[in-house]
Amino acid sequence: SDFFDWFSSCPAQLRLFVPGNHEIIFDLCPEEARQLIPANITLLEDCGIEYDGITFYAISSRMIQQMQWLGGECDLPYKTDFLITHIPRKAYWMKVRVARYWNKPS
C-alpha cells in the first residue's frame, strides 16, 4: 500500500496501474488486491480505456505467459495508441535471444 499511497499523491490527470509478474497478490487474491487501489488510480489488466481521445490497452504478464504456453495470440482493439505490458513484443524478444546466443563467449 506504500506504493499506492505514493502513486495516488503524484500530480497527474491519469494514473494507470498494470500489475506485473511480481505483483503476485493479483494472481492469488485478485479481489483483495483490487481493493488496495485508490479511486484515483485506474487498474488496467487485460483491458483498455480511452482518455482524452487516446486509447490505452494493457496485457498482463499472466495473459502473455498463457498465450506463450498455449501458442495463442491476443487480439488488440483496432485503435490502440499505447500498449502497456511487462514483456517486450515477440520480434524484439527473439532478436535479443538470438543475439545472446550468437554473442556467447566460447
Q: Overview of this structure, please?
A:
The chain is an alpha/beta fold and 106 residues long. It has 5 helices and 5 strands. The protein has helices at 2-9, 25-28, 30-35, 61-70, 90-102; strands at 16-17, 42-43, 47-51, 54-58, 82-84. The strands form 2 sheets. Strands 3-4-5 form a 3-stranded mixed sheet, with no helix packed on it. A two-stranded parallel ribbon has the order 1-2. Strand 3 and strand 4 (54-58) form a beta hairpin. The protein starts with a helix and ends with a helix.
Task: Give a summary of the structure in a few sentences.
The chain has 106 residues and is of the alpha/beta class. Helices cover 39% and strands 16% of the residues.
Count every beta strand, where a strand is a DSSP E run of 2 or more residues: 5
Portion of residues in helices?
Answer: 25-40%
Strand proportion: 15-25%
Rg is 17 Å
Task: Name the strands of the widest sheet in spatial order.
Answer: 3-4-5
Largest β sheet strand count, sense and barrel closure: 3 strands, mixed
Topology:
Elements lengths: L1 H8 L6 E2 L7 H4 L1 H6 L6 E2 L3 E5 L2 E5 L2 H10 L11 E3 L5 H13 L4
Parallel strand pairs: 1-2, 4-5
Antiparallel strand pairs: 3-4
What brief labels describe this structure?
106 residues, alpha/beta, three-stranded mixed beta sheet, 39% helix, flat
